[in-house]
Amino acid sequence: MPNLTINGVAVSVPEGTTILSAAKQVGIHIPHYCYHTHLSVAGNCRMCQVEVEKFPKLQTACSTVATEGMVVRTDTEAVRKAVRGALEFLLIHHPIDCPICDQAGECGLQDYYMTVGLHKSRYPLGDKIHKKKVQDAGSGIVLDAERCILCSRCVRFLEEVTGTRELQFFRRGDHSEISFFPGRPIDNHYAGNLADICPVGALTSRDFRFRCRVWFLKSAESICTGCARGCNIEAHFHEGVLYRYKPRVNDAVNRAWMCDFGRMEYRKANEARLLAPFVRENGVEKEMPWGALMPQVAQRLSDAVRTHGADTVAVIASPQLSNEELFLVRHFASDLLGTMNLAFTRRAPEDGFSDDFLIHPDKNPNSAGARLLGIPGEEAFHAVAGRISRGEIRALVIFGNVLGAFSEKGTLELLSKAPFIVQVGTNEGVVSRAAHAVLPSASFVERGGTFVNCDGRLQRFRAGFAPRGKARNTIEILVDLGNRLGAGWSFSGEESVFRALSRSEAPFRGMTYGSIGSLGREVKR
Amino acid sequence: MTVGIKKAARPRKMSFPEGVYLVEIAKALWLTMSHLLRNIVRQEGIRTIEYPEVRREMPPRFRGLHRLMKREDGTPRCTACFCCPTACPAKCITIVAGESPDPRVEKFPVRFDIDMLRCVFCGLCVEACPLDAIRMDTGWFTPPDDSREKLVFTIEMLLEKRG
Questions:
Q1: What is the pLDDT of residues A449-490, one digit of tens each?
Q2: Are A215 and B86 inside 8 Å of each other by CB?
Q3: Which residues of A touch B98 (CB under 8 A)?
Q4: Are residues B86 and B156 in the same domain?
Q5: What is the pTM of this model?
């Protein structure tokens, strides 16, 4: 454990820690572009130069390992002059097209110019070397070679993380630029990370391009719903519209990355949403206020139980629901309706694609949670589906927007056999076209909760903004419906449900939202 | 913090002739009639102007209705950088950016609406613009209209205006 001082602050760090990481531990930020926590050290941007006592020259903090008795200073005039010089060199050929650059607002050049730069340009505008702009680099990445500062983060990412090596340095000196080989654009499922790690606007995302200025965005800590991996993400939104996902560092799950499929999951929160509750009578949709619809739904369900028996009622849950919601769904089905017909159905994977890094074949975020909460899976679902197709089910409650591996035609055919279907879902789809009562629920980032990922890690996602339109939180819908069936629930918000859940379910025993934290923890098995 | 108290002057007590009113009414009528007679005799001295046919000279820094500037080729100078809606305290500017077919332009405003009913004419949008694409030098006030929609100025309307 070497002990050193940085700007007079004593710090003790593990063997092999660099000065840059050591400084971070005591809250001293050392400017850097090429250094990335999850990539190898390159030391080419020269922004992290610091003064170390007894060293004849300034050292790069990202590549210098802290040793016993080191005295580091980041605030001397020599350091300031060197860093400003490095920044001036990096900006020499930069086009300064911030008004049209998507990175503006989260750009390293802008940030460090304001903190360590503030110099006047000494380079004539006409002498700037122009490089190719707006190149389609493939996989939804736009490459602007002119804005690039040649930090090589993207080159190292493609070499060390994906191993695909599409980007490389070309030409020499002032003319050096990042580019791809002719006819061989970026082609991998993790390309979106390039736009995240690029400290300037050289690599930007085609999908996010020009859609919103980043300084308007607010963010919420969240979990990707694209597959069972449960990558930790930040959801960025503005005025009730979700704009993008960015990976959040969690070394136990996704390190600092996420896949492109997951990245596009945000669209589901914006497109084809169910925004107002409605009923379908004789094939005609009629919008209805919540206050009028809920008693009706509760009445129809309790009538079915009373007249035909609890066996004729079925509940189909979804592993897109959080643990809290699934816990209430289970109580709703087995205690309030008293039915054994409870199963969860998975969202059918479009291609079931998986790889050995982050992409998991199960395209649901909480299949493990559903199993831990004792909700039976695929086999039970097929049994329930069988009963529906034989016309034995008089009332059906479906959570989610699709029915397992059934095709669109198959789902409609199956659902035509049930005389009363209630859907609690987020998006329009085959189920909402067949349901007799549709209760729109809050989508991702409009609600909070917990998921259990494929490795049994309990992770929390947080609500960012209020549900869109007239949609309501699934927990709110369940409590309302449950209380009309005599549950006497007094839950408000996901945390109160989680407290009840952690008291009664063995795998979650003793856990609280506080103990899950922002990085999650393993459940007991 | 103590609140400073300022005593406001009470209306003074009226004198007797003022209290009778008749004298004051006669004085007021005399003032009106004198203006009427003066305006009939010397029309060039009339103090009111026939707005909007006749308009007052505006001071050079007057902030009137906005206009958007054009490049030499007639396309809008605006690149949809969103600096003006960021600076706008009234949140009256709505921009939707699009990808321009011209790679030298790259980004341009598909929509640029200013809600004139919300605008407070503070001029911060003009200050914020890095390209001098928006100006408030038309010298016009917000014209009256019969619906709210007509007072949301679109990019076409803003580009047509002259300084």
A1: 999 999 999 999 999 999 999 999 999 999 999 999 988 899
A2: yes
A3: 210
A4: yes
A5: 0.89
